[in-house]
Design a protein that fits this description.
Layout lengths: L8 E6 L5 H6 L9 E12 L13 E15 L11 H9 L3
Antiparallel strand pairs: 1-2, 2-3
């Protein structure tokens, strides 16, 4: 299943909508929405709990080397994992990935 993603890179997307109250609780007053913001490497996806953020009984995504794009890429996404076009991948490559 998701374990196959270990060693791959995922693009990180910010939702078009955001809970303003929730954002303010975390000290955010300005933020980008509806864009691909950067990439992260998938180290592992496992049920073995190795982090306080990992909920026992569920798969945990272990990520590393997050990289933020200097210029976010506008993108209308969907819920969950999704594929992006070759054009978007080219834009990500141009962004320094």
């Amino acid at each position: 299943m998701f374990q196959e993603l270990a060693g791959d890179v995922l693009l990180l997307h910010a939702s078009r909508t955001v809970g303003v109250i929730h954002a303010r609780e975390h000290g955010l007053s300005e933020f980008v929405t509806g864009h691909i913001l950067g990439v992260v490497e998938v180290v592992d996806c496992t049920r073995d709990v190795r982090s306080r953020w990992h909920i026992p009984g569920h798969y945990g995504w272990y990520l590393a080397i997050p990289r933020r794009f200097a210029v976010p890429i506008p993108y209308r996404a969907q819920v969950g994992l999704f594929h992006v076009s070759d054009e978007v991948l080219a834009q990500a490559a141009d962004a320094g990935v």
